Amino acid sequence: MQTSDVKSLPSTQFKDDLLLIDRALEDLNKIILGKVIQVRLAVACLLAGGHLLIEDIPGVGKTTLAHALARILGLSYQRIQFTSDLLPADITGVSVYDRERNKFRFHPGPVFSQLVLADEVNRATPKTQSALLEAMEEGQVSADGETLPLPQPFFVVATQNPTYQIGTFPLPESQLDRFLMRIRLGYPGPGLERELLKGRDRRSLLLDTDPVADGDVLLRLRSHVDQVFTSEALLDYVQALVRHTREDPDFEVGLSPRAALSLLHAAQAWAMMHRRNAVLPEDIQAVLPAVVGHRLKPRQELALRDPETLGEQLLEAVPVP
């Protein structure tokens, strides 16, 4: 890659904003111990303008991570506890008749926040799950014939229990595709678990943590993600990865064009966070398992494999051009 091919990224304000993200990552890693890669992926997902799905068993820190992202990044925050009797209006809002004005007035729901935690999203029915679709895709809510914009930046963090657990409804493919990334936290190592047992409660610690950024910082950085240069050779690599999933008989359905764009945007955000003004193959490889794991649909004999393992196998199967 020639230096002249690389677009330069902006100046002092940009560098200052990235320093704030570095500080945010430091503080996040004090709250969520031993999950440096997952935390960095979560922030990259936000900077890329996507939404995040965290799938894991209860009690490993999914909700704490969402709350920490909102607190440390200075975002308004609402948590929606998804249950089997939750209704779409409980998410988006409801129109109530105002006698004084002799008309209906819309009361916004909890989705009108910068960071929305959809906690245990797969415990609600598919109809209620779909109430998030327009918000996640368009950044708006339609109600009573009006289109109401959501606050920006708008970021949904959904937590999901494994589908084998009682009382869960699998997310439909259309809903899964709205999430830029899916990550898992997993158990902490023995040393970190001992630190958790001996230390302060994570939520108490979080309350004593001050925000280091705000929505304006994130919006400025989002505007720079698309400026991260992607060479023709890099695009060849992305297309080769996508084409392999469509031609490989191990997969029922390959990756869509939207998935390819998601992979590219996530890699651009990852490169920017690492002070690179061009995407390298290593950036694609770093984000690919989180971006494609929930989008790949393997055939029955592979269905029980870990989605992250499928992503790693895809990287092994497709050489860098």
Summarize the structure.
The chain is α/β, with parallel strands linked by helices. The chain has helices spanning 12-31, 36-47, 62-72, 89-92, 126-129, 133-138, 173-176, 190-198, 202-207, 215-225, 232-247, 257-273, 281-292, 307-317; strands at 52-55, 77-81, 93-98, 103-108, 115-119, 140-143, 146-149, 155-160, 181-183, 251-253, 297-298.
Question: Could you please describe the fold and organization of this structure?
Answer:
This protein is an alpha/beta fold and 321 residues long. It has helices at 12-31, 36-47, 62-72, 89-92, 126-129, 133-138, 173-176, 190-198, 202-207, 215-225, 232-247, 257-273, 281-292, 307-317; strands at residues 52-55, 77-81, 93-98, 103-108, 115-119, 140-143, 146-149, 155-160, 181-183, 251-253, 297-298. The radius of gyration is 20 Å and the shape is globular. The chain starts with 11 loop residues before the first helix and ends with a helix.
